[in-house]
Specification:
mainly alpha; globular
């Protein structure tokens, strides 16, 4: 570590100008929501607009829907703590391959379907029971995802703003209330316009942080990375050792698997495809999404390098409770709270808020669509359009309250934000992708095979993600979770679809299922008890 030097003078505390910037951002999001309130005439326009959204808006909205405050803080923190591979490769060099897969293999199939909820496809293929099972899993997973985002954002904001009198749950409640309000008012069209604004704030805030560090250190050369940091673990090109946390090849594979899954089984993504006119427009939207991802990933990686260099040159400014090797996620918020000029600090805090609100609003809209289409409307009760709109808004309020309460229980999972995402937020998307893969690409797939596929896939993901807990052995790399989960799900779904269940009694199918699940449960229990004793 460089020779200790006095910390630079604090630029300011979070002051009146910063609060004004933050208030203007919140007011702008609410204003957009209320503007589009007048245009909501039917539940269908609430879900997919008029199906003629410009690809640029739809593409940026896809990015904003999936890019959370976890990604924003975690992108810089990953570079500070672990190095450049995941920070730079994950959403940049992998994009050409991902784009080809999604644009030509997934989007055309989705756009041919007369659906609003992605899970309606599963009802057409496997029946209502499988559809509701998959929808329920998605609802649970998104609620957890949104709760983690609210918890993370509220904690980061308290540190960034420096207001100790606020508790995290108060910040979470405020964010949840504002986000729910403009989501239920604006529908998908208002939501997407808001997310374009949020993307602009995200990019501007990161660039201004870079400019601030560059100014303080005396030029780009002062922070531009020239060597491998001593506290970074090796990140090889490839390794057969599953305990190596990050490799270049592992990053490629995990990114391709993740984005293929998110573009098929994630309602937020599919819903934005459906707001465009046709498959070519949806393809262009996905290109803009990938370009947005790449730009932000590069800027955040560079921001991580700049923040690392700043605190490397001023080690006395680092609190005793954090370090580069163990608390990389803390340094970006620390710089925001202490060293950004007045006004810019407010903009950066607004960008953190924007990242959280974009994901929570997208998740809320997606959950409303899934709940309404797969549970409420499928019941077959005739309702007027006014009644449908009223139901969607009541569901939005219920989701907002659930997420606020759920955020109170987060924060107990070890690891940095990138690992927490892989072990919680993303864990259910892989079994859900298995449902869609079987429905679209496996003509002999059966409902029995699809259900067993999800169980085996989820179990495989849990075993990889929590291998140390189940076995007492060293932790496996989180980059294996998606690949193993998807591979096990597809293989088991194909094999169990060969079991003769069509036309059989429910008793016999139940016996087959008990045997299949019982064997899996016995294996997992054996691993766990072996680790204990």
């Amino acid at each position: 570590m460089a020779e200790s030097s006095p910390p630079p003078a604090l630029a300011h505390v979070f002051g009146a100008l910063d609060w004004l910037v933050l208030a203007l951002y919140v007011a702008a999001t609410l204003a957009i929501g209320f503007y589009f309130w007048r245009k909501q005439r039917t539940a269908e326009t609430f879900f997919v607009g008029h199906r003629r959204t410009h690809p640029l808006i739809a593409g940026i909205s896809i990015f904003a829907a999936l890019f959370s405050v976890i990604s924003y803080i975690g992108g810089t923190g990953e570079y500070v703590q672990n190095g450049p591979v995941l920070a730079f490769v994950n959403n940049t060099l992998t994009f050409p391959v991902v784009f080809v897969i999604v644009a030509w293999l997934i989007i055309p199939r989705i756009m041919r379907l007369p659906v609003t909820s992605a899970y309606e496809l599963l009802e057409q293929r496997f029946g209502r029971g499988v559809c509701r099972l998959a929808s329920s899993a998605y609802i649970f997973g998104r609620l957890v995802w949104m709760s983690v985002i609210l918890f993370t954002c509220s904690t980061v904001l308290i540190n960034a703003v420096g207001v100790d009198t606020f508790r995290p749950w108060m910040i979470a409640a405020a964010i949840g209330a504002v986000t729910t309000t403009y989501t239920l008012c604006g529908g998908i069209e208002g939501l997407m316009v808001t997310q374009v604004l949020q993307f602009g704030i995200l990019l501007a805030a990161a660039l201004l942080t870079l400019a601030s560090v560059t100014s303080r250190l005396g030029g780009v050369g002062a922070w531009w990375p020239h060597h491998w940091e001593a506290h970074w673990a090796p990140q090889p090109f490839f390794s057969w050792d599953p305990h190596v946390r990050v490799t270049v090849v592992g990053t490629f594979v995990s990114a391709i698997v993740f984005w293929s899954c998110m573009s098929t089984a994630e309602q937020s993504t599919v819903q934005r495809f459906l707001t465009t006119r046709d498959a070519p427009a949806a393809r262009r939207a996905y290109f803009f999404n990938g370009a947005s991802n790449a730009v932000i990933a590069i800027v955040l990686g560079l921001t991580g390098a700049a923040v690392l260099a700043f605190f490397r040159q001023h080690p006395a400014a680092i609190p005793s409770r954090v370090s580069f090797a163990h608390k990389g996620d803390a340094f970006f918020p620390l710089y925001i709270s202490h060293y950004l000029p007045s006004g810019i600090s407010g903009l950066v805090v607004a960008s953190l808020l924007a990242a959280a609100m974009a994901c929570v609003s997208s998740g809320t809209n997606a959950l409303i669509t899934v709940i309404f289409k797969d549970f409420i409307e499928s019941a077959g009760v005739k309702r007027s359009e006014a009644t449908k709109l009223r139901i969607t808004r009541l569901v939005a309020v219920a989701i907002g309250l659930t997420v606020i309460v759920g955020s109170l229980g987060m924060g107990v999972i070890p690891g940095n934000l990138a690992e927490i995402s892989a072990k919680t937020i993303n864990l259910l998307i892989y079994p859900l992708y298995g449902f869609f893969f079987l429905a679209i690409y496996v003509p002999f797939a059966t409902p029995f095979g699809a259900v067993l596929s999800s169980i085996y896939s989820l179990t495989a993901g849990l075993l990889v993600g929590y291998w140390d807990v189940f076995t007492g052995l060293p932790r496996l790399s989180f980059q294996w979770i998606g690949f193993v989960s998807v591979a096990v799900g597809i293989l088991s779904g194909c094999l169990f679809s060969l079991v003769p269940t069509r036309g059989r009694s429910r008793l016999r199918v139940g016996i087959y299922g008990t045997i299949a699940v019982g064997g899996l449960a016995a294996m997992v229990a054996g691993l766990f008890f072996n680790a204990l004793y």
